[in-house]
Amino acid sequence: MSVKLDHGSDDLEENHEINVTPFIDVMLVLLIVFMVAAPLATADVPVDLPGTTAERQARPDAPLYLTVKSDLSLVLKDRPVKREALGQALDEATGGNKQERIFLRADKAVPYGELMEAMNVLRAAGYLKVALVGLEE
């Protein structure tokens, strides 16, 4: 055992080592926050899509979805829209770009006639590039 007998100075010695424990704690907390928040940031309109065996296509960075829900209401992105106001809402969402592809998805319970009516509204608004969305099987 060694004993330090020199008590002449009240100054504390400088420690040149970095204490990384608080940094690690902050990083772990941020990791947990982002793990919880990431799925919530991609909240979507719940719809029961039919399956498809078609080849998977590349998905654009920011697709513009038009959803026909089971109660036959329309949702553009995540905002409900009336059929009469769909053309104006599409113009606002696309900035007037009629060449942008609209991804149309519908619940399984939606009759074929109602899906065609939604496509007719898109065509009447001048949006001719329409992609149908389904689940892969």
Structure description:
It is built from 3 helices and 7 strands; from the N terminus they run αββββαβαββ. The protein has 137 residues and is α/β, with parallel strands linked by helices. The protein has a 5-stranded mixed β-sheet with strand order 4-3-2-5-6, covered by helices on one side. It is elongated.
Task: Give a short synopsis of this structure.
This protein is of the alpha/beta class and 137 residues long.
What is the strand and helix layout of this fold?
Layout: H1 21-41, E1 51-52, E2 64-68, E3 74-76, E4 79-81, H2 86-94, E5 102-106, H3 112-124, E6 130-132, E7 135-136
Parallel strand pairs: 1-7, 2-5, 5-6
Antiparallel strand pairs: 2-3, 3-4
Salient structural properties:
7 strands; alpha/beta; elongated; 3 helices; five-stranded mixed beta sheet; 137 residues; 17% strand; two-stranded parallel ribbon
**Coarse structural class:** alpha/beta
Order of helices and strands: HEEEEHEHEE
User: Could you tell me the mean pLDDT?
Assistant: 82
* Low-confidence sequence ranges: none
Structure summary, number of beta strands: 7
* Radius of gyration, taken over Cα atoms and rounded to an integer in Å: 28 Å
Report how far the terminal alpha carbons are from each other: 73 Å
- Major pleated sheet: 5 strands, mixed
Fraction of residues in H or I helices: 25-40%
Shape: elongated
How do the strands line up in the largest sheet? 4-3-2-5-6
